Amino acid sequence: MIVAFEQPFLWFVGYSVVGWIYESSLVSITSRRWVNRGFLNGPLCPIYGVGAVLAVLLLSGIANPAVVFVAAAGGASVLEYVTSWGMEQLFHARWWDYSRRRFNIQGRVCLLGAVVFGAAGVLIVKVAQPLVAAMTSVIPPAALHAVCIVCAVALAADVVVTIRGMAGFEENLDRLKAVIQEYASKAGESLPVWEEPTIARRMRAWSESSQEAFTRLRDAATSVLSAQQRRMIGAFPRLTSTTSSAYDSLIETVRHLIDRDGGDAADGDNR
Description:
- Pfam families: ABC_trans_CmpB.
- This is Putative ABC-transporter type IV.
- By secondary structure, the protein is mainly alpha-helical.
- It folds into two domains: about 5-165, no CATH class; about 170-270, no CATH class.
- It is built from ten helices and four strands; from the N terminus they run αααβββααααααβα.
- The protein has helices at about 5-30, 45-60, 65-90, 110-135, 140-165, 170-185, 200-210, 210-225, 225-235, 245-270, and strands at about 95, 105, 110, 240.
- The strands form two sheets. It has a two-stranded antiparallel sheet. A two-stranded antiparallel sheet has the order 2-3.
- About 30% of the residues are buried.
- Residues about 265-270 have low confidence and may be disordered.
């Protein structure tokens, strides 16, 4: 009886890994640097795993690929919307934003994404899943139990570490703001009002004009923000706060520091 739950769980893990490869590769290519796109630290994007398994369980009995396409596109869009809303409520941050794309709903989902998910749903249900199911069905029960236990423990540990690492994100941004203001005051610099949209550009220009200023800002971000928080800022280019534009200015500045630091390191490796 337990095998009936273990096999779908293994499918979930597999499709989550495939989703992570897709997301990380896409963002890494556009960013021209390696980016771990997953919300978790491990090589998984759970939203892809959940969507794929739901498509398999709910749509496998549908013969018409067009119906599968429409159902997968609509279901995945609902899942993405709910996930965006839930993460926003939990962390007070917007992780992705499709507002610049046509035919979007509150920036959480868009038509292009729905089309991609619909096509992926057809590919999974009609092509990939029969092969995946055939492979997992021949795994001996003892090995299946062991693999699922290891994956479940690793996933649970990753979730705990990730959530703990993101705890106090806004409080740390407030601390970073205070550190930057203190340094600016000592350096005789004046910063505009934090809520103004120009503040991020001002700090970016400030860091680019002086290696000392860049180093101070980078060290401040490293000391105040957790490694998890810095990774999230670098991995999600559209990450914004839902509570204050001042946080957005800080996030954009930290993202610039991360990008520049990575670029400098890459240049150094090439020399």
